[in-house]
Inverse folding.
C-alpha cells in the first residue's frame, strides 16, 4: 500500500495522534516538513491519502507553497484520493474546493464543545456533541458539494465532508505535549481570557481525561476516513 502523505506547516504542529492512529492500524506514512523548506510533491499519485496539519499562517498569505498545495488537493480530489485537514489544513481544503477563508468572529483557544449535524451520522454514529481542542482566529465557509459536519457556539463551521474528504477547524489530533507547548505561546496571541479563550491553566486542567475522550471521537473520524484510502 502506498503511504499517506502528512504535511507539517509549523514545527510545533506535527501529526500528533493522527500518526499514532496510523501506526496502530499498520498504515504507512511519510512526513513533508513544509516549514523546513520542503515543497509539496507535484502530484498525489504516489500516496494513498493526503493529510494537512495546522499552522500559524493564513491560507490567504502570499507563500510559495500554498498554490502548490491547493493544486495538489484538487488533483487528489480528481483522482479519488482522500484528503483530511486539521485547522489550517481544513482551511486549505476549503480554499482548494472554492470556498473562502476569513476571520472568525472571535478567536477560539482551548477546550470547547462542538455539536454534530445530521451529516455526521455516517462518520460519528450517535455522537451528538463532544469536547474538542481549538486554536484559531480564522475559519472557512462550506464549499459547494460539501456538507457541514460540526459546529460550535463560537464557530459555525467546525468541519465539513466532501465525498471521501474530511476538513476540520478543530484539533482532534492533540497530545498532552502539544497542548503544553502551545500554551507557552498563549501570551503571544495577545487576547485576554473570555468565553472563547481559555488560559493555559484552564487548558491543562483535567487534560488527560479530556484527551482520552477526544481520542474516542478521533478514532471514529480517522477510522471512517481511512476507509477511502486508495489501496493500489
Amino acid at each position: 500500500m502506498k503511504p499517506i502523505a502528512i504535511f507539517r506547516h509549523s514545527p510545533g504542529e506535527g501529526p500528533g495522534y493522527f500518526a499514532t492512529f496510523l501506526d496502530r492500524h499498520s498504515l504507512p506514512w511519510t512526513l513533508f516538513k513544509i516549514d523546513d523548506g520542503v515543497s509539496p510533491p507535484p502530484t498525489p499519485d504516489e500516496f494513498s491519502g493526503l493529510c494537512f496539519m495546522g499552522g500559524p499562517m493564513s491560507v490567504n498569505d502570499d507563500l510559495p507553497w500554498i498554490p502548490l498545495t491547493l493544486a495538489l488537493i484538487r488533483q487528489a480530489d480528481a483522482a479519488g484520493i482522500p484528503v483530511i485537514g486539521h485547522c489550517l489544513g481544513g482551511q486549505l481544503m476549503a480554499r482548494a474546493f472554492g470556498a473562502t477563508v476569513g476571520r472568525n468572529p472571535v478567536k477560539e483557544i482551548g477546550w470547547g464543545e462542538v455539536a454534530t449535524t445530521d451529516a455526521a451520522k455516517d462518520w460519528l454514529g450517535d455522537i451528538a456533541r463532544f469536547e474538542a481542542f481549538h486554536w484559531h482566529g480564522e475559519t472557512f465557509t462550506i464549499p459547494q458539494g460539501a456538507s457541514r459536519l460540526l459546529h460550535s457556539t463560537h464557530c459555525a463551521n467546525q468541519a465539513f465532508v466532501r465525498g471521501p474528504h474530511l476538513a476540520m477547524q478543530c484539533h482532534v489530533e492533540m497530545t498532552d505535549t502539544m497542548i503544553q507547548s502551545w500554551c507557552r505561546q498563549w501570551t503571544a496571541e495577545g487576547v485576554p481570557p473570555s468565553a472563547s479563550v481559555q488560559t493555559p491553566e484552564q487548558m491543562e486542567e483535567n487534560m488527560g481525561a479530556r484527551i482520552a475522550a477526544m481520542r474516542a471521537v478521533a478514532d471514529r473520524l480517522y477510522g471512517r476516513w481511512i476507509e477511502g484510502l486508495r489501496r493500489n
In short: The CA atoms of residues 183 and 201 lie 9 Å apart. The chain has one domain: 4-226.
